[in-house]
Amino acid sequence: MFEYLNGKLVKISPTHIVVDVQGVGYLVSVANPYAWSATMNTEIKVFVHQVIREDAHTLYGFINESEKSLFLRLISVSGIGPKSALAIIAASDNEGLINAIDSNDIKYLTKFPGVGKKTAMQMVLDLAGKFDLTSSSALTINPVSADSNNVALEEAIEALQALGYRATELKKVEKELANQKGLTSEEYIKSALKLMMK
C-alpha cells in the first residue's frame, strides 16, 4: 500500500492531478485539483490512499495527513464511497462538518452529493465525537491567480461536476460566482461550495 508520492506535479485536470515520480506518471484523484495550482511543475509530496476494485486501481490524494485521515474516516461509513468522501472534503469546512455530525444536523449533511438522509444518519452514528482535526487549517494551499476569470470559473464548474454535483445545483450559484471577479479556480470551487451549503 502506498503512503505518499514525492514527485513533480505535471498535470491538473477537473478530476485529478498527475505526479511524475522518476519518469512514471501517477494519476491521483483529489478533492480540489486546482488547490494544487501553486505547485505546478514543482516537486510535491502527496499523501495517498489506494482503492483496489475488480475493475480499477485508484489513487486518492491529499494535501496532508489530516485530510487523508478525514477521508479514511468518511469512507468507513456505510454508504459513503471515495467519490462522496472527496466531495465532502472539497468543501474545506471541516468545522462545519464536525459540528453537523456532533450535533446530528442531518439537513446540513444531506447537502453533499451522494449523501441521503440514511447515509447522513449513519455518519452521525459512526463518527459523532470521534474527530480531533485541530490542524484542519493546514488543509489549504496558497492559491495562484488565474490568467482568465472565465477559464477559472469553467474549470471550477467542471471540477464540481466531477465531484458529483448536478448541473441544476451549479446553475443556481453560477451567476453569483460570475459576479465574483479575480478568483482562481480553487477560490471559485470554495465559494460555490459555501453557496450550495447555505
CATH topology label of the largest domain: DNA polymerase, domain 1
Count of separate structural domains: 3
- In the sheet with the most strands, the strands line up as 1-2-3-5-4
Element string (H = helix, E = strand): EEEEEHHHHHHHH
InterPro entries: DNA_helicase_Holl-junc_RuvA_I, Hlx-hairpin-Hlx_DNA-bd_motif, NA-bd_OB-fold, RuvA, RuvA_2-like, RuvA_C, RuvA_C_sf
Family: Belongs to the RuvA family.
Subcellular location: Cytoplasm
Protein name: Holliday junction branch migration complex subunit RuvA
SSE blueprint:
Layout: E1 4-12, E2 16-21, E3 24-29, E4 43-52, E5 57-62, H1 65-75, H2 82-90, H3 94-102, H4 106-109, H5 117-127, H6 149-162, H7 167-178, H8 185-197
Region (Domain III): 148-198
Domain Helix-hairpin-helix DNA-binding motif class: 72-91, 107-126
InterPro entries: DNA_helicase_Holl-junc_RuvA_I (IPR013849), Hlx-hairpin-Hlx_DNA-bd_motif (IPR003583), NA-bd_OB-fold (IPR012340), RuvA (IPR000085), RuvA_2-like (IPR010994), RuvA_C (IPR011114), RuvA_C_sf (IPR036267)
Task: Report what the structure shows.
The chain is of the alpha+beta class. The chain has three domains: 4-62, OB fold (Dihydrolipoamide Acetyltransferase, E2P) (Beta Barrel), CATH 2.40.50.140; 65-139, 5' to 3' exonuclease, C-terminal subdomain (DNA polymerase, domain 1); 149-197. Helix content is 42%, strand content 19%. The chain contains eight helices and five strands. It has helices spanning 65-75, 82-90, 94-102, 106-109, 117-127, 149-162, 167-178, 185-197; strands at residues 4-12, 16-21, 24-29, 43-52, 57-62. It has a five-stranded mixed beta barrel with strand order 1-2-3-5-4. A hairpin with a 2-residue loop joins β2 and β3. α6 (149-162) crosses α8 (185-197).
